[in-house]
Write a structure and sequence with these properties.
Elements: H1 2-9, H2 14-24, H3 26-31, H4 45-48, H5 50-61, E1 66-70, E2 79-85, E3 88-94, E4 100-104, E5 119-120, E6 124-125, E7 132-133, E8 139-143, E9 151-153, E10 168-172, E11 175-179, H6 187-190, H7 192-197, E12 206-216, H8 220-228, H9 233-236, H10 238-243, E13 253-255, E14 258-264, E15 289-295, E16 299-304, E17 307-317, E18 320-330, H11 340-367, H12 384-398
Helix pairs in contact: 5-12, 8-12
């Protein structure tokens, strides 16, 4: 009883703890909190169980800030981008006044999804019974609802039972974030550990240059476990190894909910820092630094002198992840004809690097079907942050 009361005071949902232990097993739960020298990774159920993924969707992705894309993807009034946040269908909308809004992508009548693909519209009409909404989310018109031939129009105030359900949306240097719970900390507070680690970079200079999409046949956590550790670089990424050999690398570390890692390379290459403008005012090692971070649960980015590249994951199924890779460059480099070839080099580099990981991630996913795999043995030198990521997942799920 005393232990239960202590856990409650520590901000832990006891019923969810029971559910987590039932899915992971007592040993699997305990291993996540063991010292790195004794620990193993998360049990197989954390990568294959639909029930576990449901916990992650509702208690991690639906309760935290989620990267929703770039402002530049929906530049004009009427532009709409559908997305999935924690398993819930959502839409980003640029309204009649140019304001960026986010709504649940579902009609208030019978629950049909409203928008299936990116588009531009003057209003939003349900494909089922043609309820019509303005770009501000308010119901404008419905036909025949009160009887044949009766057209109802709604010109005034907000009706919470009829209008689209809004979600919190904020932006940071051209990046759009959504919090569908309304409970997440202020965005600048959530991003403050990132700001502390990147004080030499003027992110107000970044401009969106485009994105690459990947379907990854693996669990979303494997994408980030692989992303965080540099141990696999020597065996999977030959060009990256040449750019930054193993002796330049370290394990990285967590600062609150932010994972951080970096290295200082000897010279630029066509995908990182060569032929493109750099951040203004970079000095010292920052002119030759590559750094990467993960703002839990899923906003990851790599920073080189000439770019800010976002990697965001969206779980679709336990063994399927949609990945968006957004490239931001410095100033006019994002769109100027003068930098067209240099931009292509950056996109080629990121496409090639990510594709080198795809087959490995799929093999990791399939390996977690084996009853012989018990979470493995982690390298104390390289995989401490990866181990801590597993703890963040569990702690986020069981938090009140």
């Amino acid at each position: 009883m005393q232990q239960a009361e202590h856990l409650k005071q520590a901000g832990v949902d006891l019923e969810t703890v029971k559910q987590v232990k039932a899915l992971l097993g007592e040993h699997g739960y305990t291993q996540a909190f063991a010292p790195i020298e004794e620990a193993s990774g998360l049990p197989n159920a954390a990568y294959w169980s639909p029930e576990w993924l449901s916990l992650e969707q509702t208690r991690l992705f639906q309760r935290n800030w989620v990267f929703a894309g770039a402002k530049a993807e929906i530049p004009e009034s009427g532009d709409i981008k559908p997305l999935i946040v924690g398993g819930a269908p959502m839409i980003l909308v640029r309204d009649d006044h140019g304001k960026l809004r986010c709504f649940h992508n579902v009609c208030r009548h019978r629950g049909a999804q409203l928008i299936g693909t990116r588009c531009s519209r003057r209003s939003i009409t349900c494909p089922y019974h043609a309820w019509n909404y303005g770009l501000d989310g308010r119901l404008r018109r419905r036909m025949h609802f009160a009887g044949p031939g009766i057209i109802e129009t709604f010109d005034g105030g907000c009706n919470p039972k009829l209008d689209l359900v809004p979600a919190r949306v904020e932006t940071w240097n051209g990046c759009v974030f959504v919090d569908i719970s309304g409970r997440a900390a202020p965005l600048d507070e959530w991003l403050s550990p990132l700001a502390k680690r990147t004080q030499g970079y003027d992110f107000s200079a970044i401009r969106w240059a485009g994105r690459i999409d990947f379907d990854v046949k693996a669990n979303w956590k494997l994408v980030f476990e692989n992303y965080m550790e540099g141990y696999h670089v020597f065996s999977v990424h030959p060009q990256l190894l040449e750019f930054a050999p193993m002796n330049l690398r370290w394990s990285g570390e967590w600062l609150e909910h932010l994972f951080y890692n970096d290295y200082v390379f000897s010279k630029t290459d066509a995908g990182r820092g060569e032929h493109l403008p750099h951040y203004p005012g970079l000095a010292g090692d920052d002119t030759r630094r590559g750094l990467w971070f993960l703002c839990f649960p899923h906003f990851a980015a790599e920073v080189y002198p000439d770019q800010f590249t976002v990697l965001a994951t969206y779980p679709v199924a336990p063994d399927l992840t949609r990945e968006e890779l957004h490239v931001f460059l410095i100033g006019d480099a994002a769109t100027s004809v003068d930098y067209q070839q240099a931009r292509k080099s950056v996109f080629r580099m990121w496409d090639s690097l990510n594709r080198e990981d795809l087959s490995v991630l799929e093999q990791l996913q399939q390996g977690r079907r084996s009853p012989a795999y018990d979470g493995g043995r982690l390298s104390p030198h390289w995989e401490g942050p990866t181990h801590q990521f597993g703890r963040h997942v569990i702690e986020g799920i069981v938090a009140l």
